[in-house]
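Subject: two folds for Thursday's group meeting

Dear M.,

Sorry for the delay on this. The cluster queue was jammed most of the week, so I only got both jobs back this morning. I'm pasting them in the order they finished. Each block is the input sequence followed by the predicted structure tokens. Could you check whether the formatting survives your parser before we put anything on slides? The first protein is the one we discussed after the seminar.
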Amino acid sequence: MISVLTSFTTGLTGSFGRSGLLLADVNISPNSNGLPGISALQTIVGAVMTVGLILSVLALIVAAVAWAFGSHSANPHLATRGKTGVLIACGAAILCGGAVAFINFFWHVGQGI
């Protein structure tokens, strides 16, 4: 089986070599003018990021109020839910604000492969 594949690939290499075709590396880079509507899509994603950040601020305020109300009313369950909400709101803000940086980081990691 391996000898058959070896002779096949050797034959392909010889065919490409004789015909002048070379197997070239693929070189593709992202561009912003390849498809219509790319700028509109970037605008929409930016608006969604803004909405996410605004909702994170709202969630932080509501969770902080719940935390404070639970702490002052001797309701540990409500205080714990408020603390959890504060952490979740901060995590959501980190993800929304750092989404571009995270994706760019992993893009550059992928480019290095």
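Second protein, same layout:
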Amino acid sequence: MTETFVVFRRAMRLSLRNPTWVIIGLSQPILYLVLFGPLLKPLSAQLGTGNAYQLFVPGILVQLGIFGALFVGFGLIAEYRAGVIETQRVTPAPRGALLMGRVLRDVVVLLTQAIVLTLVALPLGLRAPVAGVLIGIAVVGLLGAAFSAVSYAVALTLKSEDALAPLLNAVAMPVLLLSGILLPMSLAPGWLEKLSDVNPLKHVVDGVRAFFGGDYTADAWWGLGVTAALVLLGFWFGTRTFRRESA
């Protein structure tokens, strides 16, 4: 635990020294919220809700959790080239702590961004129960932890931005289109909706939307369960990679 906190504190200090990427990462979802969200207001009835932002904001938050964490591996490659990873490897710190400390920093940044994004949505028209919003933001933090661990593991394996960038983009595009982040997949044709059912992130989006709507139904908890499974898989893959690369 102590080693995890040491790695977290160093990573957090680096982020605070240069918050540019944190601000840039938040600017895109805010632009979606301000420039795309109003287009959905007249379509609220067709979307099956009285408040379009109850559907749109959870999707944008999940998008933030995925893409805000998916690209953190680029920073690890820079640290690898600077010799930081090798220096940390010769210490007695558990390899899991080297991963956990970085992931914890990413989760703190994501939660901060998610809170800011939700506050920005309030004057635009978002109305949602506080408990549902808090659970939804927590799910986004867990999702970010899973993708952050995977991103670090893939980056440590490839050790090249030229290989990491196209790989992440190849994964990100189908994930975005089949998760219903922007619009519910219930609006899609039957074949496309069934295809999206195999995408676990679609269930995460549905779950967060249910929490924001105050519907603590089986779909909501199923989304939370899928997120927990992704976290376990992400940490298993990340820790295994860090240990293997240190062997």
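Two things I noticed about the second structure. Residues 56 and 183 are 7 Å apart (CA to CA). The radius of gyration is 18 Å.

Cheers,
T.
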